[in-house]
Model the fold of this input.
Amino acid sequence: MTEIDLHGQTHIQVKHNLENQLLIHYNKGEFPIRIITGNSLMMKKIVSTALENLRFKESKINTHNGSIIVVE
Done:
């Protein structure tokens, strides 16, 4: 599974870069993707907003609270 690890990135960096990263992986057919957010509620909200903007779907089954699985 492809992973995007957001540890060490600021909220602003993620807001500016995440959608492009997701589109690159989408175009390469690299789904599902695990986005490692850590425990930051703000980071999870930023990721959820990016997924909504791209109309990607988040898995309802998630085995780790510090990540979000994008299923396309």
